[in-house]
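Technical note accompanying the year-one report. For the benefit of new consortium partners, we illustrate the data format agreed upon in the data management plan: each record pairs a sequence with a structure-token string. No post-processing was applied to the example shown here.
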Amino acid sequence: MKRDIDLIRSLLLRLEEVQQRPLTTHTIPFGHESLAVEGHTADEIGHALELMLDAGFLQVERPGFSPGGAILFQRLTWQGCEYLDDVRDPEVWRRTKDGASKVGGASLSFVWEMAKAYGKQVAKERLGLDL
């Protein structure tokens, strides 16, 4: 199954909303609306969640997934928050995806570096700051 950076971003945005109380484990079934992303199957979402765990973006209760097909989500990690903050802005994300498509595909770390660069560019345009 192919890694989908759009799906990963969408899931991070959704999980950030779930994370309302600290030190709480949220059992979220794969079919639940908080994990539903239009155009994606439960298997694709599960795969993206596994990759997000691999990337260190999520903290989950071990083993992380229940036998019934739910994630035992606790919170976004510092790294997950940092990545999300870098790709949150729709204009930065649009430019990042355009850049990645021109390169012909990119690793998540390279996409993240592009998002940081485009974020600085957008900040300069909006604020007139050289970062």
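Partners are asked to follow this layout when depositing records. The chain is about 55% helix and 15% strand.
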